[in-house]
Write a structure and sequence with these properties.
5 strands; 97 residues; WGR_dom_sf; alpha+beta; q64v53_bacfr protein fold; five-stranded antiparallel β-sheet; single chain
């Protein structure tokens, strides 16, 4: 059992979309960082075609710094590939439920 309590300094949530009608492309990518019941830091990634459930991948870390480093790295990669934020808050909220 751990002696110290782990807490996340702030919520980390990210949702972007990439659309290209000429290629019939409509994709989403979402990430969040949360604390697990076991005190680990969990970075959850979800991606796929807009309107689908998509795929999910989770990474666990012992420190928030490690999780945030991957979060920021992936965020930069997605922005370079043309993913952009949207104003669709309902979809954003449903990812984190």
């Amino acid at each position: 059992m751990r002696d110290s309590v782990v807490m996340i300094a702030q919520p980390y949530r990210f949702y972007v979309e990439r659309k290209d009608v000429s290629k019939n492309m409509a994709r989403f990518y979402a990430m969040s960082i949360e604390l697990t019941l076991f005190g680990e830091i969990l970075l959850t990634r979800r991606w796929g075609r807009i309107g689908s459930r998509g795929q999910r991948l989770a990474h666990t870390f012992t420190t928030e710094t490690e999780a945030v480093a991957l979060f920021l790295n992936l965020l930069c990669q997605k922005r370079k590939r043309g993913y952009r934020p949207t104003g669709l808050q309902a979809r954003d909220r449903s990812f984190y439920r």
